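Worked problem 6 (solution included).
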Amino acid sequence: MAAKKFKDIPLSILDLAPITQGNTVQTTFQNSLRLAQRVEELGYNRYWLAEHHNMDSVASSATGVLIGYIAGGTQTIRVGSGGIMLPNHSPLVIAEQFGTLESLYPGRIDLGLGRAPGTDQLTAMALRRSRRDAPQDFPDDIVALQTYFSAENRTARVRAIPGEGLDVPIWILGSSTDSAQLAAAFGLPYAFASHFAPAQFVTALSIYRNNFRPSAYLDKPYTMACVNVIAADTNDEAQRLATSFYQLATGIITGKRRPLQPPVDSMDGLWSEYEEAAVKQMMHYAFIGDGARVAAQLSAFEDDNQLDEIMVTTHVYDPAARIHSYEVLKAAQQS
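Solution. The predicted structure is:
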């Protein structure tokens, strides 16, 4: 089988609907829609939104609602969740929500699922209420979702309407080897969160591929990895834009979270030596530079890992610069 090359594989987008310093959530949503419309024009494959809660910098907590907004403002790009944190929800509710989305925007909706809460434990308890064992129920909840989506469920006493009989592709998302085992056992496509959890990435891909069982949904493994990319016209400009990303990551590590900050000329005084090392370890798969540099880095990444698709997330303060980053990346891939 011929090796997959970066220039030939689909590129997709992960958006956390970043709230930037000095701007409103309404502005955030408008920026996300403009980005989705532009990357659709550029030929990106998917536009996914991530469920996070109780975070000053993330506005995508009502993920299904925001997916509807983005899908309603675009025409062809697939829109979905990267992901829905299933322990926070009843499978029936998710089947109904995504059945509604698929009915409104047929053939364009993806359902990526994760088992983490996407937040701190106190917020997770507020979300789940009495579902304290929800993460352990994840495999059973996936089966329940598949059942609600099946045409065969029409004779059941509990049905998902809308949802029943619809083709809503389910993905397993993960940042560990546990998720790889699960995706392989279910025969579902697998997306790895290498943009913030690089440590087990290579091992997880190997486990998924070696243990994959063909299913009614997928006959062979399909892998996607999410990475951080900040591209600009020059390497210096990309590095400056990346300081917003570094400040965000430092806040995650220190627990001092705040909206996405403007770029700065230097990170000196904004992180300690330990914090800098921790950020760079967590963001191991961050590709920052001009188009040529980013394309070369991603080409090597694809050569090493033979992914079927790469998903990109870009934390840049200026919405125009964020859009331009995706323009530079796509042009570099096609050159």
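Discussion: The chain has a mean pLDDT of 94.
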